[in-house]
Amino acid sequence: MAKSVFQTSGLLKSFQMGSLEVPVLRGIDLQIREGEFVAIMGPSGCGKSTLLHVLGLMSSASGGEFKAWGEDVGRMSQGQRTQLRREKIAFVFQRFNLLGVLSAWNNVAMALKIRGEHRDHQVSEALEEVGLAEKVRFKPGQLSVGQQQRVAIARALVCKPAVLLADEPTGSLDSENSRIVLRLMRRLHDSRAEQTTILITHNPLIVDCADRVLEMIDGRIRKA
Amino acid sequence: MWLCLANILQRKLRAGLSVLAVGIGIAMLIVLVSLSRGSIAEVVQRWSSIEAQLWVFPRSVDVITAKGDYIDDRVMERIQAVKVNDEPIVSGVFGVFKASLQMAGQEQSVWGIDPDDLEAVTGKHKIVTGRAFDADRYFKKLVAEKRGGRRDYDPESISEGELARGLELIIDQRLAEAAGAKIGDRVGMLGKEFRIVGIVQTGVPARVLAPLEVIRCIKGVTRARSTFYFVKIRKGIEAVAAQEALAQALPSLRVERTGAFAAILGESVAIAIIIPDVVCGISVVVSFLFILLTVYTMVLERTKEIAILRSLGASSGFICRQVVFESLLISIGGIVAGTGLAYAGKAAIEGIWPLLTVDIRAEWLGLAMVVGLAGGLLSSQIPAWLAVRTDPLTALNVE
Prior knowledge:
The complex is a heterodimer of chains A (about 220) and B (about 400).
Chain A: E1 4-17, E2 20-33, E3 37-41, H1 48-55, E4 63-68, E5 71-72, H2 78-88, E6 89-92, H3 104-115, H4 120-129, H5 145-157, E7 163-167, H6 175-191, E8 196-200, H7 206-209, E9 212-217, E10 220-223
Parallel strand pairs in A: 3-8, 3-9, 6-7, 7-8
Antiparallel strand pairs in A: 1-2, 1-4, 4-5, 9-10
Helix pairs in contact in A: 3-4, 3-5, 4-5, 5-6
Chain B: H1 2-10, H2 12-47, E1 54-58, E2 71-72, H3 75-81, E3 83-84, E4 87-88, E5 90-103, E6 106-113, H4 118-122, E7 127-130, H5 138-147, H6 160-166, E8 168-172, H7 173-179, E9 186-189, E10 192-200, E11 208-211, H8 212-218, E12 225-226, E13 228-233, H9 239-249, E14 253-257, H10 261-268, H11 270-301, H12 303-311, H13 316-352, H14 362-379, H15 381-389, H16 392-397
Helix pairs in contact in B: 1-13, 2-10, 2-11, 2-13, 2-14, 11-13, 11-14, 11-15, 13-14, 13-15
């Protein structure tokens, strides 16, 4: 049986808004195993992105249990969480979040640079894999939205992360580009045997791509 | 490194203005320090050519302006008579009567000296054009004749024609070049027209030398009096021991070693050094506040970029280094621009005021570099702290 990557039990997350505490995650029980391609769907405001940020160690849970690769995340320091994120997790965002001042090549290279393992051939391979070998010198503003998202995918995958977290990766794309991006993500997932992909989306096309679709509503997972 | 460079190039005008602001601060630092220290060093260097070890002057005399009481030349006999262990220590004494004139756009110090003491004052510096003043000792002999062994004489007894023969000057080469003066030119001083009769190599203690008795006569000082004296001590006598002996013998006068002139001058012009130093300090601080503001604004503008780096796993140290690098890049640009501006400033100052010395030394450039880098480093601390505290999720959600 594949190893557990993330395991949560009664996971809570709330935000303080003035004197008011707003609960967003209301007890998430979840297990994600190595190599899975999991989609999380649900209406806006149900807590999908918050869950993704907690899983991606960008945000801390307010309560409950959360284990990543068997380690209790609640006991980790900020530095340990940053290190774990750097070594094992990559993000793809709805708005791409590329560095506008850098070329496509340098955007991808930056992810390696942060890990201290910059190798030119890895950058070239990653951009080739997403079909942008010809656009390496282009800055994000010179690329179409579909191409920008492909650069963001190349940046996420160049470090060969254990987990890829994608937050509405097709949210800013038209249907044609959405189809291209989802197929690309599935293909890249399949080509990396141990990679786990967790994707948040409203896009019904994902049903054909994902191994498992989870539905979230009001801060809870409704069905698996 | 490319991210820092790309970010700076993204806002070329703002980065350029920051570099210029730092450059101006650095240039002011280099030029003002080089000007104040350079001018003092140049005067001290000129004083080193005097062939005398001690310097005697009234306590009331201001070293820079030479304003104060004159000393009666009879003190020269007392100086000559000073002994240590019953051995005479003085081999020669000569007096200087100070005056001033306007030349090359600024006030020049004029040393009235006895024609026979010219070599002791000019040292190894030779007259390159013309001749020494009062070469045939005409005026010196004339005054001696008028005194007739008395201490005083009637200045009215010297006719305009007799005085005119003594109205001669020697100037140094740098002043001659600055004023475009040549042999035979006439220069006004103390209401009289002096002729330039000689030009001496640059490096003599006073840029203008004139016959002692002529200056005294025009100023109506008919008794033999001087502003200060230089004392040559005998070989084998320690200057410090001779200084102590003279100071004991002449308690109303101040006795200093000529080698200590730099320190005495430093004391006298301390305020003239402190003011440029304070101006430098303020300009450098303002320049670096400009960097702080620039980098601070850059960080505020780029919270999203910092959040992206965070999402890629960038540590606090990595984020901090980006901010510090940017600040240092601006500082390095400022140091390079400031050094260029400093040399341009030196050329401009020395072009407009040719007698000012802007002596840009490696040590001042080194100081500017250290100040520039330290300032850049310090200026980046608040923005770096702010960058590290950026909440990545809030920043990523702001569109």
